Amino acid sequence: MMRNAKQVRHTTETQIDVELLLDGTGVAIIDTGIGFFDHMLTLFAKHGRFDLTIRAKGDLHVDAHHTVEDVGIVLGQVFHTALGDMRGITRYGTQLLPMDEALVQVALDISGRSHVSLNMSLPNAKLGEFDTELVSEFLLGLSRHLGLTLHVTQLAGTNTHHIIEAAFKALGRALSEAVRIDPRFAGEIPSTKGCL
Hints:
Elements: E1 4-10, E2 14-21, E3 28-31, H1 35-48, E4 51-58, H2 65-83, E5 92-99, E6 102-110, E7 115-119, E8 126-127, E9 130-131, H3 134-146, E10 148-156, H4 160-179
Parallel strand pairs: 3-4, 7-10
Antiparallel strand pairs: 1-2, 2-4, 5-6, 6-10, 8-9
Helix pairs in contact: 1-4, 2-3
């Protein structure tokens, strides 16, 4: 069964088109108009082994906030759609990932309950034209629309680029683990409630 989805969100601020294949090979076609963000999303797809296409046009003459947040929203929606009723998924994922001096842990649960706990200290407010505070906006959008409980904890690191890169790679790998079909739960919803 192909676990894939497409989602479009067009507003007066952004036009976002996303296509996702959960069980892919990590092929990424990303164009948001924000170079650093494109790089992070490419790493996310590659390390998660998701085939992911994101085409976004936003009001970058204002700033990148709307584009980054809306990409998170649509990515959460497309994951939710591709997962269907969640039958057979592993549900939980954890990754401890080093990137040079940086060390970041991501733990997540596709629970249907949105929560983001972000414990990161980013020394630089900007990387190129990217405002680093937008990492949290992206993660909030993703979490709210996927129904994801997400904990991102920085254990070490002084280089802002390395810290954020470790977080995106760890997120991809942890989410890949969580969406993987576990044969022991074949056909089952992985919850005692019977739904997620």
